[in-house]
Write a structure and sequence with these properties.
By secondary structure, the protein is of the alpha/beta class. The chain contains 20 helices and 19 strands. Bound molecules: thiamine diphosphate.
């Protein structure tokens, strides 16, 4: 039987029908109508700041590929959540931000009403696939249909839907149903045949893989093994081909040992990757070979590294078709390519700086005792920069390091979102002492939810990467040596366990214990002691 309810309640029901089980947020007077519909089929998780809520939704999407949802008030709720929007945009993640907006008759007038942004939709436009305001209740199912269609069939991007308070309160007949979602575009068989013939004719092929190919790992491994292509991942593509695969160089375009070999490639197959500057930190990589780009986003085919063959299609189905087109081909150079990969890997290890060696040793100690299926939720800190190529991942969606937008503070709330999305999967945080402070209050959220997350704070005396950058350019240090709190006392005050460690053995013991604990554990690992 149809039931009359408010538009806000009906929105929650419709989200549930699209498969949403959890929303992250902080209620306010502008979202009270939503609250009536929450914690029945859809669970509400209270964050401590909307930036945390947004990062939790983003962590959900990172771990699953499914949309993570945040629900916030208008104005400050939206501005606080806009950093995670930027991060989800940069990493092509399906995140849905639903917010209130001021009453329709006030929008754009600048009357000074509560939580006012005169044009909220315009504010989030550059951070989203689309941002729109519901002008009446019936707009909501249409806007949600657009959002879920984008997530399912295009390059995933965050979406922001604003629902003014008067629209939220409208009475509707609750019969809103999800639309049938379209699939992703398929490749033209002629292009597949051409790509296969180029790969068969290559003497030193190279595969560059990004987060857009997360579901294409099996086909990609098969293509690498048959063509002898060395595989390099972006940070978002790490683990799609197991890092210990004999043809994998992991996420290593930051390494000079790897940048050096790029010009040797005569055919490059770039799949689901922007080939962005933040994976190599060089202005332009030296890629001279014939370039095949497979991407669901047409704007990525010829943007910076022009394609000789551009295929606008879904990565998984395209690579599966490419496997079929390669037929029983097996290149003669496969063993030589494996040997080359082995040599480059060992050059990378030998080429590490003193501090990278220290990071690698700490990470090795953690990996030795970590469960194989763990998710590492990393912040922008030096330990994680080294981990991008030094931590061996065997599956995608388990190494979080948002190198693109690179907003400090993602790691802890990302981990909370990931753990709630994947309750059976262990999740650990790797974060710098500076980055941790950006979203530290979410430790309370993790403690309240009793999440057994080890949080390794790499304590190196402040904003070390920027200290190093200043030292290198002979700039006197400014703004990078601010005081840290007593992390152990702070964590305990937030109802978490906490410990300082000064040896790898102590770190390993604390880590193993933390994974079994009844709440999160902050493990402070001092650079000058470990
Ligand atoms: C929101 C935000 N503000 C500033 C920066 C610039 N930034 C990049 S790395 C860094 C230092 C981070 O310090 P910490 O988290 O302690 O890690 P460390 O470099 O010391 O390992 C800063 C300030 C940033 N990436 N994001």
């Amino acid at each position: 039987m149809r039931k009359a309810m408010t538009c806000a309640e009906a929105t929650v029901r419709l989200l549930e029908r699209y498969g949403v089980s959890t929303v992250f947020g902080i209620p306010g007077v502008h979202t009270l109508d939503f609250c009536r519909g929450l914690d029945q089929g859809v669970r509400h998780i209270q964050a401590r700041n909307e930036q945390g809520a947004g990062f939790m939704a983003e962590g959900w999407a990172r771990a699953t590929g499914e949309p993570g949802v945040a629900l916030v008030i208008s104005g400050p709720g939206v501005t606080n959540a806009s950093t995670p929007l930027g991060q989800a945009y940069a990493d092509s993640l399906p995140m849905l931000l639903i917010s209130a907006d001021a009453a329709s008759n006030t929008i754009g007038k600048g009357w000074g009403v509560l939580h006012e942004i005169t044009d909220q939709t315009q504010m989030t436009k550059p951070l989203t696939g689309f941002s729109a305001t519901a002008r009446c209740a019936q707009d909501v199912p249409e806007l949600l249909a657009r959002a879920f269609t984008l997530f399912a069939s295009q390059r995933p991007r965050p979406v922001h839907i604003s629902i003014p308070i008067d629209v939220q309160a409208e009475q509707v007949d609750e019969d809103w149903q999800p639309v049938t979602l379209p699939g992703r575009p398929k490749a033209d068989p002629e292009d597949i045949a051409k790509a296969a013939s180029w790969l068969k004719g290559a003497s030193s092929p190279l595969i560059m893989v990004g987060g857009g190919a997360c579901d294409a790992g099996a086909a990609l491994s098969d293509i690498a093994e048959r063509t002898g292509a060395i595989v390099i991942a972006s940070t978002a593509g790490k683990g799609i081909i197991p890092d210990d695969h004999p043809l994998s160089l992991s996420a290593s375009t930051v390494r000079p040992e790897v940048l050096r070999i790029l010009p040797e490639a005569d055919v490059i197959l770039a799949v689901g990757t922007e080939l962005s500057e933040t994976d190599s930190f060089v202005e332009r990589m030296n890629l001279n070979g014939r370039m095949i780009r497979i991407d669901i986003d047409p704007s990525k085919i010829n943007d910076f590294y022009l394609a000789d063959l551009g295929i606008v299609a879904d990565a998984q189905s395209t690579l599966q078709a490419l496997c079929v087109a390669l037929d029983d081909y097996r290149a003669t150079g496969v063993e030589a390519a494996k040997e080359r990969t082995r040599v480059i890997r060992s050059e990378i290890r030998q080429g590490l700086s003193v501090s990278e060696r220290q990071h690698a040793a700490v990470l090795d100690a953690l990996v030795e005792v970590a469960p194989a299926d763990i998710i590492w939720s990393g912040d922008a800190c030096q330990l994680v920069y080294t981990g991008a190529f030094a931590v061996p991942m065997r599956v995608p969606r388990k190494w979080f390091y948002p190198a693109g937008y690179c907003a400090l503070g993602n790691a802890l709330p990302n981990a909370i979102g990931a753990r709630l999305a994947r309750p059976e999967t262990p999740v650990a945080v790797l974060v710098g002492d500076g980055g941790f402070m950006f979203t530290m209050p979410e430790l309370l959220t993790a403690a309240e939810l009793k999440l057994p997350i080890p949080i390794i704070i790499w304590e190196n005396g402040g904003l070390k990467q920027i200290q190093d950058d200043m030292d290198q350019r002979q700039i006197s240090r400014v703004g990078v040596e601010g005081a840290n709190p007593d992390f152990v006392a702070l964590a305990r005050a937030c109802h978490a366990h906490a410990v300082d460690v000064d040896t790898h053995e102590a770190l390993q013991a604390a880590f193993v214990e933390a994974l079994q604990a009844d709440r999160p554990t902050v493990i402070v690992c001092h650079e000058d002691q470990n």
